[in-house]
Amino acid sequence: MPDNHTFEPQTVMIDSGETVTWTNESDIEHTVTAYEDEIPEGAAYFASGGFESERAARSRVKEGLIAPGETYEHTFDHPGTYGYFCIPHEGSGMVGTIRVE
């Protein structure tokens, strides 16, 4: 995350079974939060803070914040396209995509 309101790269392509690690390289807190309706059917939901739903992540934002210099990781075991975002900066266009082959 080189600037304060983007995921870099915005789209990542990986193989099934690989782990993605997000590192907060900005000077403000962020979340990594999956859009429930933008993950493949049968895939595990993911969000910093360990939430099991988008609703839970949105209602308890502080618990999912990643501080500057900290990381969050998730292993993608199910092929398909995953959409995700930062809750505090969603309105600024801080969204990303993981494509799992």
Protein architecture, described:
With 101 residues, this protein is mostly beta strands. It has helices at residues 54-59, 61-64, and strands at residues 11-14, 19-23, 33-34, 71-75, 80-85, 95-100. It has one domain: Cupredoxins -  blue copper proteins (Immunoglobulin-like, Sandwich), CATH 2.60.40. It has a four-stranded mixed beta sheet, with no helix packed on it. Strands 2-4 form a two-stranded antiparallel sheet. The longest helix has 6 residues, at 54-59. The model has no long low-confidence stretch (mean pLDDT 95).
Note the main attributes of this structure.
single chain, 101 residues, mainly beta, Immunoglobulin-like, four-stranded mixed sheet, 2 helices, 6 strands
